[in-house]
Amino acid sequence: MKNWGSQSLIVVKYLKDGRTGGKMALMNTRLLSNCKACVAFKRWITERKSDKSKEKPSSLTEELENHNECPLDTRQLGIATWSLLHSMAAYFPENPTEIEREEIACMFHIIAKYYPCNICAKDFQEDIKAMPPETESGEKLSQWLCKLHNKVNKKLGKPMFDCSRVIERWKDGWKDGSCD
């Protein structure tokens, strides 16, 4: 393990499978414990590595190999963006450093500035100006983002999400085990 700045990072080697070319990736060690996103990626890599036969590929593999290579429409972009933002908030440290707090707040402002949908970007800029990111902890950031997302849902006439379940939805998985 090597220490770079305020965060301890480890180097994880990707499989040498032609697409990655043996490139190295850096992962924050804090994200590796109890990380469903990390586990899903590891499972996918293991399946790809062990699948030497002509068996039917997993749905994740099919999705990745057969995805539509067209630009995202506004709905697809929104779903992808909210998924990324909620996942980042759910995995944000519970006791972040001042630098981490500044960086995550800056990330939200940058996304709001450069978001490809101009109307959405303008609304997001206004929303985060009126309701700045709460970066004191991962829980507070997740709750802030859920409230912000519900504000957008209300504008669009969509149902509200129960913010008490935000960590269950974006980090731990549903209690019924359907995400395991």
Summary of the model, kept short:
The protein has 180 residues and is mainly alpha-helical.
Task: Describe the model.
By secondary structure, the chain is mainly alpha-helical. The chain is 52% helix and 8% strand. The chain has seven helices and three strands; from the N terminus they run βββααααααα. The protein has helices spanning 36-50, 59-65, 74-90, 98-114, 118-130, 138-155, 166-172, and strands at 2-4, 7-13, 24-28. The chain has a three-stranded antiparallel beta sheet with strand order 1-2-3, with no helix packed on it. Helix 3 (74-90) packs across helix 7 (166-172) and helix 4 (98-114) packs antiparallel against helix 5. The protein starts with a strand and ends in an 8-residue tail after the last helix. The relative contact order is 0.10.
User: What oligomeric state best describes the polypeptide chains here?
Assistant: single chain
As residue ranges, the low-confidence spans are: 1-33
Q: Biggest β-sheet: count, sense, barrel?
A: 3 strands, antiparallel
| Percentage of residues in helical conformation | 40-55%
Shape: globular
In terms of DSSP E residues, the strand content is 5-15%
What structural class is derived from the secondary structure elements? mainly alpha
Number of strands: 3
Gyration radius from CA atoms, angstroms = 18 Å
Mean pLDDT over the residues: 77
Helix run count: 7
Strand order of the largest sheet: 1-2-3
| N/C terminus separation | 30 Å
Order of helices and strands: EEEHHHHHHH
